[in-house]
Amino acid sequence: MIQMTLIQIDNYGPWTVTPRPRTESDLQILQAELFADVQRQFATKKGLVFFTRFDNMLAVTNGINKEDHFRIQRSIMNRYPITISMGVGSAETPYEAQKKATEALQKAGGAQSEERREILAVDSLVSPENSFVQMAHIDINGVTESLTDIIPAFDTNFLVNKAQHYLMTKLIKKGALLFFIGGDNFMSPCNNLSTEDLTDILNELDEEIDIKFKAGVGRSDNAEDSAYLADLGLEIIREGKNKDLVSVLETDYLETL
Amino acid sequence: MIQMTLIQIDNYGPWTVTPRPRTESDLQILQAELFADVQRQFATKKGLVFFTRFDNMLAVTNGINKEDHFRIQRSIMNRYPITISMGVGSAETPYEAQKKATEALQKAGGAQSEERREILAVDSLVSPENSFVQMAHIDINGVTESLTDIIPAFDTNFLVNKAQHYLMTKLIKKGALLFFIGGDNFMSPCNNLSTEDLTDILNELDEEIDIKFKAGVGRSDNAEDSAYLADLGLEIIREGKNKDLVSVLETDYLETL
Amino acid sequence: MIQMTLIQIDNYGPWTVTPRPRTESDLQILQAELFADVQRQFATKKGLVFFTRFDNMLAVTNGINKEDHFRIQRSIMNRYPITISMGVGSAETPYEAQKKATEALQKAGGAQSEERREILAVDSLVSPENSFVQMAHIDINGVTESLTDIIPAFDTNFLVNKAQHYLMTKLIKKGALLFFIGGDNFMSPCNNLSTEDLTDILNELDEEIDIKFKAGVGRSDNAEDSAYLADLGLEIIREGKNKDLVSVLETDYLETL
Amino acid sequence: MIQMTLIQIDNYGPWTVTPRPRTESDLQILQAELFADVQRQFATKKGLVFFTRFDNMLAVTNGINKEDHFRIQRSIMNRYPITISMGVGSAETPYEAQKKATEALQKAGGAQSEERREILAVDSLVSPENSFVQMAHIDINGVTESLTDIIPAFDTNFLVNKAQHYLMTKLIKKGALLFFIGGDNFMSPCNNLSTEDLTDILNELDEEIDIKFKAGVGRSDNAEDSAYLADLGLEIIREGKNKDLVSVLETDYLETL
Description:
The structure is a homotetramer. Chain A has helices spanning 12-16, 24-43, 66-79, 94-107, 143-148, 153-172, 195-209, 223-238; strands at residues 2-9, 48-50, 56-60, 84-91, 120-122, 133-140, 179-182, 185-189, 213-220, 246-250. By secondary structure, chain A is α+β, with helices and mostly antiparallel strands. Chain A folds into 2 domains: 2-130, Nucleotide cyclase, GGDEF domain (Alpha-Beta Plaits, 2-Layer Sandwich); 133-256, Reverse transcriptase/Diguanylate cyclase domain (Alpha-Beta Plaits, 2-Layer Sandwich), CATH 3.30.70. In chain A, strands 2-3-1-4-5 form a 5-stranded mixed beta sheet, sandwiched between helices. The first copy, chain A, has a 5-stranded mixed beta sheet with strand order 7-8-6-9-10. In chain A, helix 8 (223-238) links the parallel strand 9 (213-220) and strand 10 (246-250). In chain A, helix 2 packs antiparallel against helix 3 and helix 6 packs across helix 7. Chain A is globular. Chains A and B meet through helix 2, helix 4, helix 6 and helix 8 of A and helix 2, helix 4, helix 6 and helix 8 of B.
């Protein structure tokens, strides 16, 4: 079971234009620092946050309980001009987990409600014995050599965004999510996605949009370790030690390091 | 003429996995804080930075000279474990300007070169009398009401990413760029794009992918004021004072506030 | 027993002037952000860090184990141009605890050694059953009314610094520490200091340097709760509900809120 | 003439305990980040901010005009739960300049007034032709070797604080200010203080409290360059190239680097 948290800024849209539109650079800084801040706090307990839309962030939070969530909300309230609400849900697939998390929060009021403030709506938490997170770290082959150092920066950006869109389209059908994590890298919480299905998706995209991907997959009971194992799996392919498109590592691999 | 700066982390890819993959949450925090940091520094001189791919950021930098750029590089070198190189270019369209900025930097060495470090490659700067920035702030109609408060968070994210992909595809053909700035909002540096062409693009997307957009457009001699005018233009549509899809404001509108 | 951690930047002095002196504003930002950063990480586990000399920080860390410390070190190494070493000690008094923490780290090498890097030297950790933290939050009576709003800002600063110096001088003899926490506020980890002794010290300072203080004292098994109880104790005096100079609250007071 | 700015958080004391005391770690993070933030913004225009009491900060701001101050205030208002007011003054000595800055702000209302918010009270600005800043960077001889690596961390802290108190006491009589900048380092804005007077003060302290200091002094038309020249002056003594206690560098030294 994977546990996901939806982190939503309360009544953010109206705030950004009250009394008149706030300076765009300030909003960009506020959003980036808020993301960095909740990331650091969730990360001390082995969670991992994705910036998503910035005013709505999704996080994998196995092992992080209700009081932990509450303390993060309080910490943000004390240091920012805005507050955050959260919904928490758990399920067999990441898609279902974020769906439950969203629904729990939606029941408590709208994102632009003036009344809703600092809600912590927990649908369900994963117990230690059921905790399982599968993460795939997917990147595009040879971006620096074939794109960054050759074509204009925005064209590379366009291609990476295109890759994201098509990856998302395929993965969501399998109950997996996909988040851009910078450069040419994507992280996919993907419990229940088989190695065969992931390989098929990468092969299909090579044919359909002519972009070649590879992926490391990690499996453990928390987001941090699974992401790390996924990174290590990707390194194994980069070093040529695995000729497949997908390289999978289980949690006991950590003990061999 | 618009001036754009490409900000690139030196040799970042290899650094992230040396001696072994660094904790993903730390990389996410580093990237977000670096973005916030350069944003704050460019913003003190009315520039505006877009996070783009985080390891490669694009900025509109009219009015910001070579020494300003150098001071930002030095400041980052003193406080981060990585350094940044920059390319600067100016042209009639944003696409051409970032192309020149990229080429200037590419000539100085590869993004993953171990030798290249803290390069400041200036192709061209815009002079005060030629300085002109047109920005469009584009958003999706009714996202909170129709999506955020109703469907799962990731589905909204998927739709926003799809909107970005299709907007990018149309705008790039007109020499305009597009950046996601959070929520359901996009900012498009778009010198030379006519109101008619932008309106046509928004209408086409409504038909082709069934997503309804609106846009405020601002024009001035710097990124900050143009973005602010674009925000104000969008507010005018939101308030129903302009029934068109696109609302344009010139720099002299600022004096009426 | 109180547990204290000494956090020391490795080889910082030489780094600040290599190859030539680094911009002072950058160093100030680096130091402040490093302090904020370790604070946030220790705070997620109810610790409390004092900025002390910035390149050497002291923290009350009851309940925070070796792996927690290691994870904080790794997180700093991944995001800063410098690394940190730590010493951890526990004892009956804060003075003894920081002494043990310092000695543990000193044994591992000098602060300006080029070899010493990311040391975690643990002399002793407090077990949950022996964990006890007494904190006093001390402030100066009526600073805003009598100083901030009347005399020049630097004169107020001078007086607050003088108060700190004399408070430190008296408290250190009792095995208690004292840290400036902003405004006219000081926090004193002070296990083993009796209410009578603290009252005597405040009375003596009133006579000797003509500065009137008051103090809230909190007692619990961790830094966060004790500091909070100390804040509440101070509020009780401010509201006139306690006419003494010192107001003490035990951990069970938290349950009455 | 030196220009100084007093930066004061509006109504901060009451805010920290409303509705009940806020978590101490959050306040510490907020204060440190606010300091880092205004530092970065003033630093882009060659100013230098001292943390002072955190809720009241003093800055040397030669060359920074009214609009620059206003933009910093706006940027803080957009990203923090608190706002800041500022007073600006200029004079022959730093003491007089901060006195004027304080008085300008005090006239606009009290620090804990609920009405006063985002005031920018300018007594006087320094014109480019009259701009002059003298800075002394003072440190304690051999702190790492004789203290940090030998005695407990808090004892070193105590000694550094004592040094600060006695330095302040002497310097204020000469119209000079003194700020702790971390480690064993102090920065003193000291227009009008002669090299002889500074040398005398350091010699007196050696006799009176048995602490040996040395100082680099820099002179230019802005805070950044003067602080840098002061750093370089101190390096010259450290390297043994100047046997005096005080080493002075003028602005034209920068051209020789």
